[in-house]
Write a structure and sequence with these properties.
This protein is mainly alpha-helical. The protein has 3 domains: 1-92 and 127-174, no CATH class; 120-125 and 188-228 and 359-503, no CATH class; 505-630, no CATH class. It is built from 31 helices and 5 strands. The protein has helices at residues 2-25, 32-57, 62-75, 80-91, 98-123, 129-135, 137-145, 162-173, 176-201, 209-215, 218-224, 230-250, 254-269, 276-291, 294-323, 332-335, 345-356, 364-368, 370-377, 392-396, 408-423, 432-452, 457-485, 488-491, 497-504, 508-517, 549-556, 561-570, 580-583, 592-605, 627-630, and strands spanning 524-527, 540-541, 575-579, 606-612, 615-620. Helix 12 runs parallel beside helix 14 (276-291) and helix 12 (230-250) packs across helix 22. The relative contact order is 0.08.
Length: 637
Amino acid sequence: MDFALFLLIFLAFHNSGQLLLNKIFGLKFPDPGEAVLFSTALGSIVFSGIMTVLVFSGFINSAVCWSILVVFLVLGWKNLSQVKKLLSVFNSPISQPAEDSGLRNLTQSFLGLLVLLSIGSAFAPAFANDALVYHLAVPKAFLQTGGLVHLPNNIYSLFPQQIEMLYLFALALGSDSLAQLTGLGIVFLLLFALWQYSKKNIHKNYAWLTPLIFISTPTFFSVASSAYVDLQAAAYVFLAFYSWKNGCDQKQPGWFFLMTLFAGAAIATNLTTVIILPLAFLGLALHGRTHKNLKQTLSQCLILIFGSLLILSPWLARNYFFTGNPVAPFFMNIFGGENAINWDVVRSQMQFQYYSSLGMGHSFLDFLLLPINLTFFSEAHSLKFDGHIGIVYLLLIPALLGLDRKSIPLAIVFSVLLIFWFMQTQYIRLLAPAFAFLSVLLVTGLTQLFQKTKIGKKEKLFLTSILTLGLLFNTSIIMKEWFRVDPLSYILKKESREQYLTRQVKAFPSYQDANEMLTEKDKVLLVYMGNLGYLMDRPFFSDTFFEDHTLTKIIDKGVYAADILNRLKVRGITHVLFNFHYIFGKDSVLTMGERAIFKNLLIKHGKQLSAKNGFLLYRFMLDSQSENQKQSIPLNH
């Protein structure tokens, strides 16, 4: 059912985008592949905008979303002919040498395998951390409320919600699996764009290699089907460049309007892609200089500014309305907003220091060593880039020697994106926009070496063998993790949703107990529970990033039980769910005094309801009056 809905959703995306491209932008596509690509990608922006309007107007529910889907399916039923043409393009024979045919079959086999594995991963329930914290948790809150709601305890909810609006649409129609499939569909658009661009601008024989190099990156593969936004942002970034390239080649102003929409969508998807704006201005300036039309260039730059702001404006206005700071939770030292959210300047600075510590240094030498450090020293769930890129990129670096002047725009964009990433937060998954361009550059260089240099069959076979070994290595990492997660057990109904999530999320049984034991009138304080808000069906209070902030703040204001219980009452907190390891264990974040106070509070004024996998659920006896409380004996006595 979810897969059928996934296909219908993207057909509706295509239909809505096709209507705009024909009637507003006036673009004609000689290639059916480009027609489907840009129509569907534009349609995803259209649907995100529609959902944003519905959320802000308070009319979001399943019935409305079903109606929207049906309307766009009916309006664009004639566009099915283009999809048939696209399938014929994939199946069209290409005359090529035997060794090129072998490489094409090899890349298609690897790519087909990874696509199937990613779809299988998306079918299983969502368990990735950021998805449960906010990419799915925020849309779920909007859907439950029926419209926009302020979530002051989750600063990530203040980010622009471009892709989250698509996840909201999917949740309204189905489950989190459908949301994961929808996010994966945008990733497939990126892969399709990489293939289409390579087929058009490099060589048909090697076009399949570009999306394969990208998606065979282990970290990119893992987040592709996890309801994240990093690869989706990369899709919009690359489509913005693709639109600019077509605008330069075809001299149709409609392409620069598309570039503006994709650039704005990229920033609204992930704020770390904001660097695309100066790149877009540079592209427009270069195009204007070539055609010597200053007036047109200035108008295009203004359109870029206002178009990007148009996409971002609802979220900036939302932040200003709720916090008084349009760019909250950033620049709080300038615009304020501390009183409206559970965040402050001090925590913001500490978080920035943590992000700055990611990677393996920020010096010029560290930049030169990036290929080695990323390939051999990166580690998942660590400060060392938090992920894996595999070995394919390192093996293909010599192919960059085959680049010519036509690749300069691609090289400039890649270099700027890489340097910006290096200077900011060195998460591997945030490399996706840069590595999309790197994949194109590598295939371009490899094609030049194969086609324009005197490389014989033996040399070509050797290079193909090296590439195959690299792909096998990357794929082995992916499959090892895939079998560890084992989504097939859930897909084949060998285990229930609860059993599957219990394997993936250690705290899931405790979240489940909280949902069953608490009522809508209760509110639980989460302390080092990962803030997996999507798993909570009951009201909760939590701290972003520094998850002990509220607990220590309540404790440190006083040591008397009556005072602590009153502070809990003021916040409406009736229960606490915490990770024993980080509260009372050897890695406790609390001081000895804070631990003593909290322990005595639980003993004297708490009742244990659940204890599973090191996670404890307590109910505070807020209305009880013990002798110790009456005598005002401090809890650390």
